[in-house]
């Protein structure tokens, strides 16, 4: 890259960091890239770090030593996250979204790039300090959320299928009990999709009793993998704690009431915000 003026270098360096979250970048790499002294690079990074933190963009961690460098960690402030969720609530509470069984139609929302980016950042903030190797979800509506979170955490995504695909080779399949309708269902994961002893973050779009998430956890047991966390976009508030199949999870929103006659719904902040607001 040709030598840039400082103002241009700051812009390019910022974009470079934003595109490589959770990646350690050495000062030498920056110095070579911009043909600048390490002292100048350090000053630039100090400016970027200050702006990132003041504007709630994230944190810039500095690691000293020969193998050190800087690492951008995407973060979102609680105030920003709450504001985003309230905007999402306005969409979720639209009467036409109410489906039989107390479910909400969310497919169109999960196709909105800005919404996905924001939700991905909130999940990335919630799980930023955990050791994670891969993100897992089950087809189909959880896939966009998983990829949005993976982009912020710079991690690969593994997709659990409802049935085995010939194109994925041999697979591990299990039966699980759906928490919502108590039916026996099947899910499978290709053997090549997940390394043994991986630390896995499960992301799902909607959770009622938690049967699907519990099924994924049981599937991970077959790979000797560890559940590093569970993130749910919307959970149902109609299921009591005694009927919930899992306790350790983070939800961003809770559907507390659905009136099938009037099509009125009430959505509130999920348990992620319990100790924050």
What are the main properties of this structure?
single chain, 277 residues, alpha/beta, Arc Repressor Mutant, subunit A, Rossmann fold, two-stranded antiparallel sheet, 7 helices, 32% helix
Helix-strand blueprint:
Layout: H1 6-18, H2 27-34, H3 38-54, E1 58-63, E2 69-74, H4 78-92, E3 98-99, E4 103-104, H5 113-126, E5 134-138, H6 142-153, E6 157-160, E7 171-177, E8 184-190, E9 199-207, H7 211-221, E10 226-236, E11 250-259, E12 264-269
Parallel strand pairs: 5-6, 5-9, 9-10, 10-11
Antiparallel strand pairs: 1-2, 3-4, 7-8, 11-12
Helix pairs in contact: 5-6
InterPro entries: PRTase-like (IPR029057), PRTase_dom (IPR000836), Pur/Pyrimidine_PRTase (IPR050118), PuR_N (IPR015265), PurR_Bsub (IPR010078), WH-like_DNA-bd_sf (IPR036388), WH_DNA-bd_sf (IPR036390)
Domain Bacterial purine repressor N-terminal: 5-74
Protein name: Purine operon repressor
């Amino acid at each position: 890259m040709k030598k840039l003026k400082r103002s241009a270098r700051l812009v390019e360096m910022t974009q470079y960091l934003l595109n490589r979250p959770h990646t350690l970048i050495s000062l030498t790499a920056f110095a070579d890239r911009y043909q600048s002294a390490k002292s100048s690079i350090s000053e630039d990074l100090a400016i970027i770090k200050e702006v990132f933190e003041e504007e709630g963009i994230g944190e810039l961690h500095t690691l000293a030593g020969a193998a050190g460098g800087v690492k951008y960690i995407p973060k979102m402030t609680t105030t920003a996250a709450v504001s985003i969720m309230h905007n999402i609530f306005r969409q979720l509470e639209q009467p036409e979204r109410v489906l039989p069984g107390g479910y909400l139609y969310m497919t169109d929302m999960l196709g909105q790039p800005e919404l996905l980016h924001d939700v991905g950042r909130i999940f990335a903030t919630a799980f930023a300090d955990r050791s994670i190797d891969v993100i897992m979800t089950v087809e189909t509506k959880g896939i966009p959320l998983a990829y949005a979170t993976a982009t912020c955490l710079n991690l690969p995504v593994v997709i659990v299928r409802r049935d085995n695909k010939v194109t994925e080779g041999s697979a591990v399949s299990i039966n699980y009990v759906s928490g919502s309708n108590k039916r026996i269902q099947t899910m499978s994961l290709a053997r090549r999709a997940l390394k043994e002893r991986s630390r896995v973050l499960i992301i799902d779009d909607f959770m009622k009793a938690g049967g699907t998430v519990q099924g994924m956890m049981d599937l991970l047991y077959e790979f000797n993998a560890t559940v590093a966390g569970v993130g749910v976009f919307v959970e149902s508030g109609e299921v009591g704690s005694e009927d919930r199949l899992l306790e350790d999870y983070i939800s961003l929103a809770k559907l507390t009431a659905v009136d099938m006659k009037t099509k009125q719904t009430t959505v509130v902040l999920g348990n992620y915000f319990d100790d924050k607001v």
